[in-house]
Amino acid sequence: MKATSKITELEHVAIIMDGNGRWAKSRRLPRVAGHRAGVKTLRNLIEHSVKIKLNTITVYAFSRENWQRPQSEVDLLMNLFISALHSEVKDLHKNNVKLNFIGDRSTFSGQLQDSINESELLTSSNNGLCLNIAANYSGRWDIVQAYHSIAKDIESNSMSIEDVDETVISNKLSLAVHKDPDLFIRTGGEQRISNYLLWETAYTELYFTETLWPDFDAKQFDIAIDWFSKRQRRFGKTSEQIERTQN
């Protein structure tokens, strides 16, 4: 298959934006400087994604495990969320980007919850790039809350146990309305999924790079896309079967 036609299959990219702290440390800067640089990188990547007409990006901004970090860093991250929403949401709206948050927002401050709700409302009618931000999210939490919802449906007799299949579970997850990610990118050198979109990434192509997130620019993103374009996605079939369908 030609690379150009393969790229048209790329609709949804999931990203773990790793390496902000190490980027700052290597420059003898406070960790928050790395997080601020990371916000700038995300902004540039969104602009590039709009240009290449990507459908969906889902980024891991703050995991449920991140609460274990030093309180001072957590506080700075929460304040950065608020300031970034206030400074970026109008430009996102101007560029027809739809903003959507996934994760348990109930533990966030009232101010941050208000900022999230306002940004989602402002961009709710946009039909361009969809930017999903996973905040206070984990894949295991997502699956558990899906099962809780299914259990309630069974308890209320609106569903039977026999009705529960993969489609039912998928429809209860945070990204139910989206196609599963085609490409997963993790920056910063680590090669693990870290409790991120565990159900949805069953057949996602996994791309790991040593590049720290603040240095991951449009050129680096295009390299990842080019790598994806060369992958043969078989979904359980043989190479011969895939090749026959392409001829």
What does this structure look like?
This protein is of the alpha/beta class. The chain is 46% helix and 14% strand. α4 runs parallel beside α5. It is built from 9 helices and 6 strands, in the order αβααβαβαβααββαα. It has a 6-stranded parallel sheet with strand order 3-4-2-1-5-6, with helices on both faces. The chain has one domain (3-137, 180-232): 3-Layer(aba) Sandwich (Undecaprenyl pyrophosphate synthetase).
Name the poorly predicted regions.
Answer: 1-5
The proportion of strand residues reads 5-15%
CATH topology: Undecaprenyl pyrophosphate synthetase
Instruction: Please give the number of β-strands.
Output: 6
The whole-number mean of residue pLDDT values reads: 92
What's the total helix number? 9
N-to-C span? 9 Å
Strand order of the largest sheet: 3-4-2-1-5-6
Helix content: 40-55%
Which CATH class is shown? Alpha Beta
Main sheet summary? 6 strands, parallel
Q: What are the SSEs and their pairings?
A:
Elements: H1 3-7, E1 12-16, H2 20-26, H3 31-51, E2 56-63, H4 71-94, E3 98-102, H5 110-123, E4 130-137, H6 139-155, H7 166-170, E5 183-186, E6 205-208, H8 218-229, H9 239-246
Q: How would you concisely characterize the structure shown here?
A:
The chain is an alpha/beta fold and 247 residues long. The chain has 9 helices and 6 strands, in the order αβααβαβαβααββαα.
